[in-house]
Write a structure and sequence with these properties.
Helices cover about 0% and strands about 55% of the residues. It is mainly beta and about 500 residues long. The strands form 6 sheets. Strands 23, 24, 25, 26, 27, 28, 29, 30, 31, 32, 33, 34 and 35 form a 13-stranded antiparallel β-sheet that branches. Strands 5, 6, 7, 8 and 9 form a 5-stranded antiparallel β-sheet that branches. Strands 18, 19, 20, 21 and 22 form a 5-stranded antiparallel β-sheet that branches.
């Protein structure tokens, strides 16, 4: 995890990741000043080392002398290009423009102003200074896309007409050698105020367009079988659950990766960069999230279910029972609640297995649990198909409300007819990732607890656990330690 921390612990803003010669390059904004674009590198896409900053705001009088906003890195005309958003003091920051910087090595960048850049929002397709009902113009978050011999920028913009709060669209700029042609929007859903951080990619026969939506702070997507055709939504168009924002995609070793920052509480505070997920499609062409392929490369050792740590029933419920059989365990509680607790040899691990719920009661996973039962709980609603992660435990600082109970994130999943499913829980530092039947359903960061206990809980249910393994991961390299880590070059 990475936060770009300094005086404030949560300085990272919108991000972009570019992979070249096996090195991951992270470019990101610095919040709240927006006065430079930072640069970090990684060998694994998870642990980052800061290097020289890429760009700074322009000198007084320049078109970008106020703030720098979201960027995108691409190889274009045999040079690395950093397309970025700039604001000027002269406009009081109300006019967003798109500029470029170029580099031969991704390390040293030179701004370029020419007959094409900086580019700005123009009629007739988009709002301009004569059609500016909000008194500020959205034209930011460029994303470069190459289609054959044609090159385009996708931009978060606003359509020239429509209800004030629903003009958000994804603009198209076609890049020619001597000019930019402003095309009609690739996407105008007539739903949102802005469609932030757009990005486009193709899997098999479909184009997929992502956008981050400020109204509900989620990442959504649309699809089409031709690049400038009609884009549609599936029944569920949320790609990343709440808390994940400003997503961007990058191609890596044959995989499409999605990166984003995660916020805790408000999009304006406490941002952290979690590990990436992979993007794949199901048989209907819907996007699904799967775990990053490099997790397997990080495993240090593995325990099979037969040699798991000893189980302790923390609540001493007299109706609870544990049955060990050659092919699995049955953990049950006929009445009330029981926590089946084990202690992991390491705080960082991948726990996976198969769960089958027997009967009509409730069940779930737990992690970071202590001997008093304080921890993170992951209940599975096997009727409505809802999975949630919550922090739950004692609150000794307030004896009038002596508990903590807070839902951190929820998502939907399809309940199998036999109520049996595979799970995969990744605990790494303060990062949580839960997959159900190989699809990532929960992905978040939380700093409340850090304990070695893990296990399952039962509430008037029987749980059959089988095929389970506990795989140990190394300790995360702290952000500041990474600056001196010789393994990152």
């Amino acid at each position: 995890m990475y936060a770009g921390a300094g005086y404030s612990e949560w300085e990272i803003g919108d991000i972009d990741v570019f992979v070249h010669d096996g090195v991951y390059h992270l470019f990101h904004l610095i919040i709240p000043n927006h006065d430079y674009i930072a640069h970090a590198i990684s060998n694994d896409g998870i642990t980052w080392k800061r290097v020289n900053n890429a760009l700074f705001v322009g000198h007084p009088g320049a078109w970008d002398d106020d703030m720098l906003w979201t960027m995108h890195t691409a190889l274009y005309h045999s040079k690395f290009h950093l397309f970025y958003t700039g604001l000027s003091l002269r406009d009081k920051g109300c006019m967003q423009r798109i500029g470029i910087a170029v580099s031969d090595d991704l390390m040293d960048w030179t701004k370029v102003n020419d007959e094409r850049f900086p580019a700005q929002s123009q009629a007739p397709h988009y709002e301009d200074m004569q059609n500016n009902p909000r008194q500020w113009l959205s034209f930011r978050d460029p994303f470069f896309y190459n289609e054959g011999e044609r090159q385009f920028l996708l931009v978060c913009a606003r359509a020239a007409d429509g209800p004030l709060s629903r003009r958000g669209c994804v603009a198209v700029l076609e890049l020619l050698d001597d000019k930019i042609i402003s095309r009609s929007p690739i996407l105008y859903p007539r739903m949102y105020d802005d469609v932030e951080c757009p990005c486009l990619f193709k899997i098999e026969n479909n184009y997929y367009l992502l956008g981050s939506i400020r109204e509900d702070i989620k990442v959504r997507y649309w699809f089409c079988n031709e690049i400038f055709g009609e884009y549609h939504s599936f029944h569920s168009d949320v790609l990343l659950p709440r808390g994940n924002y400003a997503a961007r995609v990058v191609r890596d070793n044959g995989h499409w990766l999605i990166y984003n920052f995660y916020f805790m509480g408000s999009v304006h505070i406490k941002r952290v960069l979690p590990p990436p997920k992979q993007l794949e499609t199901d048989r209907d062409g819907r996007l699904i999230l799967t775990s990053y392929y490099r997790w397997k490369e990080m495993i240090l050792s593995s325990l099979s279910q037969a040699v798991f740590p000893p189980i302790k029933m923390l609540l001493d419920n007299p109706t609870a029972d544990l049955q060990r059989m050659p092919d699995g365990w049955i953990l049950s509680s006929r009445s009330g609640y029981e926590l089946f607790y084990m202690e992991s040899p390491k705080l960082n691990y991948i726990w996976e297995g198969t769960i089958k719920l027997i009967g009509l009661g409730k069940c779930g996973l737990m992690c970071d649990v202590d001997q008093d039962g304080n921890g993170y709980f992951i209940p599975f609603d096997m009727v409505n198909g809802l999975v949630t992660i919550r922090v739950w435990g004692a609150n000794p600082s307030n004896m009038k409300e002596d508990f903590i109970f807070s839902d951190l994130q929820s998502n939907l999943f399809k309940v199998p007819d036999d109520r049996s499913f595979d799970f995969r829980l990744i605990r790494y530092g303060h990062y949580f990732e839960l997959s159900i039947n190989n699809i990532v359903r929960l992905t978040l960061i939380d700093y409340t607890l850090s304990n070695a206990g893990f296990g399952l809980y039962s509430a008037s249910s029987e749980i059959y656990l089988s095929n389970s393994t506990l795989q140990m991961l190394p300790e995360p390299i702290l952000e500041y330690a990474a600056q001196e880590n010789p393994g990152i070059s």
